[in-house]
Amino acid sequence: MTSTDLPLAMAVPETGRRVSTRIWQTAFASVEFKIGLAVFVVLLAAALLYPELSGIDPSKMNIRAKLTPPIFMGEGWSWAHPLGTDQLGRDMLARALVGLRYSLLIGVSTTVLMLLAGAMIGLFSGYFGGRTDTVLMRLTDAQLSIPMIILAITILGVSRPTIPSIILVLGLAGWPVYARVMRSTVMSERRKEYVRGAMVLGATDLRIMFTLLLPLVLPPMAFVAVLDIARMMIFESVLGFLGLGVQPPTPTFGNVIADGRKYLMNAWWIATMPGVFLVLTLTSINLMGAALERARNSIYGGA
Amino acid sequence: MFILRFLARRLGQGAIIIFLVSALIFTLLRVVPGDPVRLMVGGMAPDTLVEEIAAEMGLRDPIYVQFGRYMGKVLQGDLGESFVRPASGAAVGGASFDDATRGERAKVLDLIAETAPMTLQLAVLAMVFALMVGVPIGVWGGLYPGRLPDRLALYTSSLFVSLPNFWLGIVLALLLSVKLNLLPAIGYRGFSYTILPALVLAVEIAPFIIRTLTVSVAGVMGQTFIDIARVRGLSRNQIVFRHALKNSAVPLLNLLGVQFSMLLGGVLVIEFIFDYPGLGLLTINAVMQRDFPLIQGIAIVTAAVFVLINIAVDLLATAIDPRLDY
Lengths: 303, 326
Prior knowledge:
Helix content of chain B: over 70%
Number of helices of chain B: 13
Helix content of chain A: over 70%
Mean pLDDT of chain B: 83
Radius of gyration of chain B: 24 Å
CATH architecture of the largest domain in chain B: Orthogonal Bundle
Order of helices and strands of chain B: HHHHEEHHHHHHHHH
Radius of gyration of chain A: 23 Å
Number of domains of chain B: 2
Mean pLDDT of chain A: 82
Number of strands of chain A: 0
Oligomer: heterodimer
Shape of chain A: elongated
Structural class of chain B: mainly alpha
Largest interface: A-B, 49 and 51 residues
Structural class of chain A: mainly alpha
CATH topology of the largest domain in chain B: MetI-like fold
CATH class of the largest domain in chain B: Mainly Alpha
Low-confidence stretches of chain A: 1-12
Largest sheet of chain A: none
Membrane topology (chain A): Multi-pass membrane protein
Pfam families (chain A): BPD_transp_1 (PF00528)
Main location (chain A): membrane
Strand content of chain B: under 5%
Strand order of the largest sheet of chain B: 1-2
Subcellular location (chain A): Cell membrane
Order of helices and strands of chain A: HHHHHHHHHHH
Largest sheet of chain B: 2 strands, antiparallel
Low-confidence stretches of chain B: 91-98
Strand content of chain A: under 5%
Family (chain A): Belongs to the binding-protein-dependent transport system permease family.
C-alpha cells in the first residue's frame, strides 16, 4: 500500500470489482487453485448427492453388518459399505458425507458472519477514530489474547449446542482480526485524495463509508477469508470432538471421530476414515485460499 | 532511557488488556447458564443448601461486587481457590455435599504452577520440531519464488494446516504407538511421553513458519543490499545465512507473538487427547466442571504471558533490526 512509487495511479483508486477480477484471474491461472477446485467440486458433489442417491440413511442401524471393515481391508468387507460400518452397523461413507455437509454449512456461515461483523466494526472504528476506536481496539486486543477455544467451550459447555449457537460463538471469537485489518486499511484510505474530494463535494460520512470505502476494501479481505472457512471447519470439528458441537444422532466429523476413538483397537476405520474426508476437503479449500492470498499479495505488492 | 519509556508504556497497555480479559471472562462465566454450586454439592443436595452455600461464597452478589472483590485479591497475588479440586491432589466432582475435605481446596496459583512446566516442555519441544521442518522448507521456498521449492512449501503448508490436531493425534497414536510400538501415547510417565503430543503440535505450528519465511526470505532476496553483497563477492551461502536469514527473523518473531493464543488453543486439545497433565488439560477440566476461579486464573495468567511475550518479541526485534522503532 505504498503510495510513494505510483503517485498518479494511486490518486484514482481501482474499483473493488476490477481488482477482484484480476485476483480471480491470477489465482485461477495457478496449478494449486485448479487442483483445489477440482477436489473440492468432487467432494461437494459427493456430499450433496451420495446420501440422497444411494438412499442410505446415515443413522440407520444394522447390527448384523456392524464393524464391517472398509473395502479391501481385512475380512468381511463388502461393496455395500465402501468405508465400512461402525459399532451399530451405520454406513461410514454416508456418515462422513453428511458430516461434510454440516461442516461446510457451519464453516461458510461462520466466516461470512465474522467477516461482515469485523468489517463493520473496523469500518466505523477506522473512519471515526477517537474514543470509539480506542475502546474497540482495546477490546480486540483483549479478545485476541484469550484462546478462542476457551471462549467457545466456556459458552457452549452448558447450553445444548445448536447450529445457530455454534455459528454465533465461533463468529464471535473470530471477528477481531477482520476488525483490525479493516480499521488500518480504512484509516490509510480515508486520508487519500478521492475521499477528501468526496467530502468536499458534500457526501455524507455514511455514503463515503458504504459506497466508496467498503466496496474497495472488503473484496481483498474476503479472498483471504477463504482460508478461514477451513479454520472454522476445524474448530467446528474440534467442538464436535469435545462433545460441544452439533449433537448426535446427527453425524459430524467431530462426534463420529470421538465415537470411533472408543473402538480404535478393533475397528480403526471408524475414527480415521471420516478424518480423511475432512482432511481432503480442508486441503482443497486451503490450496484455493493460498492461491487467492498469493494473487492478492502480488497485486497489492505484498501488503 | 527510550527502553524504559517503552517498557512503561507497554506494561501499562498490558495491564489494561489483562484487566479487560479478566472482566470479559468473569462476566461471561456468570452470564452463561449453569450453576457451579450445583456441580459442587452434587445433584442430590436440596435447593436450600445450594442457595446457602452460594450465598456464603458470595456468588449471589451483583456481578460488579463479585468482580471488585476478586480483582482486589488478584492485585495481592491471590487467585483464589478451586471450587472442586481438593488440595490433596486428584480432582473430585461433587459426589457428596457433606464432604469433609471441602474445607481445603487447592489454590489456583498452585494448580497453574504445577501444570505450566509440563506445557512449557511440550511447547518448547513442539517449537523445536516445527522449526526443524519449517525453516528448511520455508527458506528454500523463499529462495526460488514461483519455482518447485516454492510450490513444495505451499503444498506442505496447505496440507499441514488441513490436519485437525485431534484426528492427527489419533492416527499417529494408532500408527506409532499401537502398531509400531515406538512411542508411548497416553498419560505422562517420563520425557518420551512428550514426543508424540509435541509432533502433533509441531504440525500445527509449522505451516505458519513456512508461510512467513517463504514470503520474508523472497522479499529480502529481492532487495538491493543483497545484490550489493553479491557484487562485494560474498558467496551465496554467506548471503543467505548472514543477510537474508537475519532479516527474515523479525517477521518470524512477530508471528510467534501473534500466534501465541492459537498455540495455546492447540495445546488444549492435544493435551486432552493424550491425557497429558499440563495447563491445557487443566483448562478443559476446569471448563467442564465450571470451576470459575480456575478458569479465571488461567485466563489471567495466559493474558499476562501473552502481553509479556509480545513485549519481549518487540524488544528482540529491535535488537535484531535497529531500524525498527519501539
